[in-house]
Amino acid sequence: MSTVQETKVEKPEMKRKFYHLIINGEKLESSNGTTFKTYNPATGEVIAEVAKASKEDTEKAIQAARQAFDYGKWKKYPVNKRSRTINKIASIMRARFNELVELEILDTGKSLHAAQGQVMQAIEDFEFYASAIVGHRGAVNSVPGPFQNYTEKEPVGVCAQIIPWNYPLMMTAWKIAPALAVGCSVIVKPASLTPLTAIILGEICLEAGVPEGVVNIIPGSGSEVGNYLVEHKQVDKVAFTGSTPIGKNIMERASQTLKRVTLELGGKSPNIVFDDADLEAAVDGSLFGIFYNTGQSCEARSRLYVHESIFDEFVHKFVEKTKKLTLGDPFDKGTHIGAVIDQNQLDVIDGYVKSAIEDGADILTGGKVAQVKGFENGFWYEPTVIANVNHKMKVVNEEIFGPVVVIMKFSDEKEAIKLANDTEFGLGSALWTKDGARATRVANQIQAGIVMVNCPFSAFPGTPFGGYKQSGFGRELCIETLDLYTETKSIISYYGSRPLNPFGL
Ligand code: NAD
Ligand code: MN
């Protein structure tokens, strides 16, 4: 995803055992004293206890954010001062890079390389928006006669930001950074499975000089805290990343107050390998495309379509390399595949694989819960390749969110495009070909927010990230995200020498 900083990450002891809510600049326990535990999915061990926000705490966070937005100074700062503060957040994160990486690995079970790349990207997101905001401005529009029109971009207000568990810090950065840049206040609800790095990021924002109440972090349940935020009259916008069913539910609830909504939802992204592709690059890129982050990626390229003339050779190479992927200690540099997030997700993945077997598919490798030496109590799944499938099967149509890929054949470009688009989703897509004209032609016809051409990476700070169809709407990580955190105000003035008298009275 991003450049990895070469540093030594020690396998840490979890020094801090308790994590607070952050409301109005204060580190608080929950109003009713409730807490929840967070686990290391690699080992199954409890790593920390976290204050669990109640409805009362959520109300308090909304009032703090409201107060900070309506009467506070953040949005009134000259843009260079906000930019400087956002850069300060990035530099504190850089100084605490290893600590953030360690914590992210412990809370998610993801591999060292994945965590390093994601923490680095989170840092670079803040740097990107610190720069981007300086050039974000309204326009002067041409109007006839002695009239003048200009527009102002005003911050939308109080934003609820709801985060999934697969990229806890990176998704939080994608949301906080642009909102802060334009002058909004935020209330972040991290996923209950992975709240730790978002809490640390909230502390870092305060340390960097973001005024109290502008960034509030309230771990808690989706149905309680999440719903409360989404329905509240004093919340102006909700930015959600998560599953498609919950995204639909949020949109429906948010309609009652006509909140601004952006939704980054699920996917089932196609990966097309044409007969003229660089075969090695296509194998390696496709492998990364699905197994990166243990397949727990919204843009995981989980449907692989290979031209019939190279199908056998490609599949052979792909399966051989899949077998070489290492599952093991997430802190080892050599580990490719980390743990699955929890037992529930492990059951979901295994259920999909079993459904494929029942539907008559062939498991070419993997296909079961993995046994990893020294990590017997963790949640692990073997990287799995499934062939002999078709578009009627669940395993081809639904998002699995695990290290499972289905491989199918196609015979010409038209068919490849048709198969790729035969899905409710439209987030990522990839294609492998040496023919530039074909790449352009196919890229133009794919119904997805992101097309990767001979490229395994889906996101860099500055590149728009978001979906077509039921993968949601709105774009993150880019300049236009700033527009999604602002309202456009149009100011029309008259500068004629004579007073206007439109009624002619
Ligand atoms: P999820 O939908 O279960 O939960 C996401 C967040 O929503 C969590 O914080 C959860 O507590 C909260 N939530 C749950 N119910 C809620 C409700 N009723 N109201 C408000 N909030 C509620 O998703 P997950 O399992 O955490 O994450 C995996 C999903 O996220 C996958 O579908 C994946 O594709 C998607 N995802 C999408 C993107 C993207 O950019 N498109 C990025 C990462 C993940
Ligand atoms: Mn955890």
Automatic annotation (TrEMBL):
Is this entry keyworded Oxidoreductase? Answer: yes
Can you tell me which residues form the catalytic site? Answer: 264
Which Pfam families did the record assign?
Aldedh
In this chain the Aldehyde dehydrogenase domain maps to: 31-491
Q: Which InterPro entries match?
A: Ald_DH/histidinol_DH (IPR016161), Ald_DH_C (IPR016163), Ald_DH_CS_GLU (IPR029510), Ald_DH_N (IPR016162), Aldehyde_DH_dom (IPR015590)
TM region positions: none
Q: Which PROSITE patterns match?
A: ALDEHYDE_DEHYDR_GLU
Task: Give UniProt keywords alphabetically.
Answer: Oxidoreductase
Signal sequence region? none
Q: Which PANTHER family match?
A: ALDEHYDE DEHYDROGENASE-RELATED
The UniProt similarity line reads: Belongs to the aldehyde dehydrogenase family.
Identify this protein by name. Answer: Aldehyde dehydrogenase (NAD+)
Tell me which species this is from: Priestia endophytica DSM 13796
